[in-house]
Design goal:
With 290 residues, this protein is an alpha/beta fold. The protein is built from 10 helices and 10 strands.
């Protein structure tokens, strides 16, 4: 991008007020001093144990959570302190994929996909569901692209988990985003559906130049699909590098005694490597449930 990153995160931090037993009021840090950049078409995964700050990081990037320190620059624009009107414009270009799909279950798949255009509508058009013929055609094309064209008129509550997540991806694409933030998008899916979702996300980075930043517990998928991996522990970035640099020892250091949280979805791809390394004191077996 001619030396300019699509996304530039600098010293991002998030603290919460907390009541500590026997110590009165205080603050708890969910993120501290996290910095990294992302370019167009990059596939970046964020790994780390529960409570490491992965979801807080993604939700801070698009300001669903307000960071308490640091700066976020997106497409050359400082968005750290944007007001509501400015954020509405930014949210068109930063899509979000949720673990729990975030669909309207009483609506059909095609209606949910069309909701990706709400950021471009005024309040009246949005509330009445007024979409152009071009937008409707585009929604059908996107459902076809994620393999769900025949399910366009199926209610969302009648779809499987993997199908729901693919509807969520199609809905995000209706926004015409530059970045897709994916918060544990395969956490609730079986291995086959997980791989299908990851393949779609990976294809989007390659074919459309959309940047994907994905939170995962499935370290073997992170190693397989990523251009770059970021490791968080206790709210701090403890690793950033390529999948080749994310050695078993590095992964063990990221999870530091919480290896039971590393989900194995490719029948031993990770635990076979880690098993060959000296065990950490108190570390659980790789492949445990989340």
């Amino acid at each position: 991008m001619n030396g300019t990153h699509l996304l530039d995160i600098r010293d991002l931090g998030k603290s919460y007020e907390a009541r500590r037993r026997g110590a009165g009021e205080g603050t708890a840090s969910a993120l501290s001093g996290v910095s990294f950049t992302a370019d167009a078409g990059e596939f970046i995964t964020v790994i780390g144990p529960s409570g490491a700050g992965k979801s807080t990081l993604l939700r801070s990037i698009n300001r669903l959570i307000e960071p308490t320190e640091g700066a976020i620059t997106f497409a050359g624009r400082d968005i750290t302190h944007l007001g509501r009107s400015g954020l509405r414009e930014v949210h068109r270009e930063i899509a979000m994929i949720f673990q729990n799909y975030n669909l309207v279950y009483r609506l059909t798949a095609i209606q949910n996909v069309l909701h990706g255009r709400l950021g471009y509508k005024n309040a009246l058009a949005g509330s009445l569901g007024l979409y152009t013929e071009e937008e409707k055609l585009r929604a059908f094309e996107l459902l076809d692209e994620v393999g769900l064209g025949e399910f366009a008129y199926r209610r969302a509550d009648q779809l499987s988990g993997g199908q729901k997540q693919r509807v969520g991806i199609a809905r995000s694409l209706m926004q015409e985003p530059k970045i897709m933030l994916c918060d544990e998008p395969i956490a609730s899916l079986d291995p086959k559906s997980s791989r299908m979702v990851m393949e779609i996300l990976r294809r989007l980075t390659r074919q459309r130049g959309i940047t994907c930043i994905v939170n995962l517990h499935q370290v073997d998928f992170a190693l397989e699909y990523s251009d770059r991996i970021i490791g968080l522990r206790a709210g701090e970035k403890v690793f950033e590098g390529t999948p080749e640099q994310a050695t078993p020892e590095v992964i063990r250091g990221i999870y530091e005694g919480q290896m039971d949280e590393v989900v194995d979805v490719t029948v031993g791809a990770v635990d076979a490597d880690v098993a060959g390394a000296a065990p950490l004191a108190g570390a659980g077996a790789v492949g445990g449930a989340q």
